[in-house]
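Recap for those who missed Tuesday's class. We walked through two folding examples back to back. For each one, the amino acid string is listed first and its predicted structure tokens come directly after. Nothing is annotated here on purpose, so try labeling regions yourself before you check the end of the notes.
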Amino acid sequence: MRRSLELRSKTQEEAVKRALIEFNVKKEDIEIEVVEKPSKGFLGFLGSKEGLYRFYVVEKESDIAKEFVETLLKNANVDATVNITQENNLIKVDIVGKDAGSLIGRRGETLDSIQFLTGLALNKINKDSHMRVLVDIENYRSKREESLIRYARKVAKEVTRTKKTKKLDYMNPYERRIIHSSLQNDEYVNTYSEGTDPYRRLVIEYKR
């Protein structure tokens, strides 16, 4: 729920100052709704009436992501810290701590679930959001990417040598993309996917 506050004040400027102190945020982090305009009254003071202003804190998507993941960790009794960085339309969520590794799961399945749920949480707040979320734990993503690239090149060599098509284990779209990209310029093999998620797999075949 968005934080909100109603204040009565003689001027909007005065109300804004009080709201910023109350919320402990910057001016660009609030939205202002004038509910009732102030009136000066007779001769500028008799019967004057203060204005009524309603303020809302702008929920930043990066803050929403951080709060959502922290709540997940708390409910799972996992002692870890959540660090957030934002690059253009990508929110990076990095989970760090002695218990964080338990959230990776087999081949990153639990980590992918956390990432998916965090994306849903952002979409629920702002259906027009174009932000993407990447959740990582102690640099697992880059380590997994390096491992997949090595594996892809190893299988490509095997297919080149034997000229026999190789079907890999089921992988998520992220992992399939890594292998596709790593072999897209290979001189001897082609790659394509078959099946439907979650049972979609990547196939490496020899170029005839």
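Example two. Treat it independently of the first, because the proteins are unrelated.
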Amino acid sequence: MKQHTTPARDVRGQLNVAELVSMPHLGLELAAGAAGLNRRVQWTHTSELEDPGPWLEGGELLIVNGFGIPADAPGQAAYVRRLAQHRLAGVAVSVRAPDLTPEMLAVADELGFPVMRIPRQVPFIELSYLVANASERSARDRLARHLRIFETLRLRNAIDSDVPGIYRQLEQISGYRLALISPSGQALLDNWPWVPDIEWGDALEATDLRVVKGGYLLPLFVGDRVTAYLVGIEHAEFSAEGLAALQHVSTLAALDAIENQRRREAEHRTGASALARALEAGASHSEVEQRLHDSGLMREIPFRVVAFGRIPNPLPESRARDWLADRRIRHTLLWQEQLIGVLQCSDEQLAELSAALNVSVGVSPTNTDVAEIPRMLRQARWSLSLAVDTDTPEIVFTEQQLGISRWLNPDARTMERLAEDTLRPILEHDATQGSELFHTLAVYFRQHGRMRVTAGALYVHEHTLRYRLNRIEQMTGKSLKNMRESFELWLAVEAHALVARDEDE
């Protein structure tokens, strides 16, 4: 094997892979990954697991007999990728291991991850002692650095603590660029706004440590819920001190996460209370206006009322609120099991909101009069009803519905009279006879008058459906074949749904 020139020893005493390979008495043979010869070896570890990475800190030289190395080429390639992902210094493999496949060695070369073969006559303990003795000074230095991390607690708890200054100092000590981000990937602290530009994938769903490109992601808990993540990306100007240093930093970052969560919850309670008051009948206009403005609604800037569709189970309502809080949207409320809100943002941001939460959103026209909020909520809910049957989430603006909302939502009393005058016969029949004529009519309109589809949705025969529709026409005096009369029935069904919601509230 070609001998490699030994680079200068790290100033803190640690060996690197090239130095180990160049020591004749060890006889290590570099099989692949020459681009990683300058990796520092902080420690050694022995493990026969197929994925020992979660048990390691990073920077270790893994020494194995090879019992955990798969015999097949794809398995060996995946094995090396896992080790490289956890940023080990390299792997030294005993001659007892399975034959190392060309595919495995090619992946190691691609990743610059050193793979070495160990001669039979070299005991593992000799290699470990060598690394430990060389790293003694480094170990003392790392301990000192970890103690310096905890020293920043005193600075963090000072009344006039300089948060950016503290995080800059922690970056120098730990050797990582640090980001404190929310579960939706936004900067948690206004005065520490950096967020790494990497593909998160499902990392922001994690409840345990994750490896990301160039570093680590550590979840921070408040109670039993992840409310923030500490991200550490290896710094270009400082030497990375390993996962243990980041875990110490996370102790401090958790304090900021807790403080931020308390602030968010206080802002949400204030905003939700103001919105609830705005929806109360007879509420003082001046009081509602003052409470909304005190809780962050900006004066003279138009706002919309939005109604969210049912949020999927994997995305709890609390996380939706966190997403909104990241964007300074504070006036949201879980109202009769539906999330609603008052928002001052662009149409593009509303579309982003719908996509991020994976829900359809009904949106009222803009307004600046807080007294209009109850009517705007009816408009938003009606708009949302137009999207509930779509396969993919969409955002429905009331003003884009051909002006029909102006007829449907002038005020609650008008809608109530419309529903009562048109639907009273079938509603009374349902109440006294236990029939389902109103539900049948609603489903019929929802399925756009398609008889077979409607019958399937109701789990009845088409003959039964025709009988029910004939009864509806007889009782209301309106024909479903007449465009005007059919439209009046549809309008009454929509109005009844909105009136029923208002009565529930």
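Answers for example two:
Residues 1-12 have pLDDT under 50 and may be disordered.
Residues 295-408 form a domain with the Alpha-Beta Plaits fold (CATH 3.30.70).
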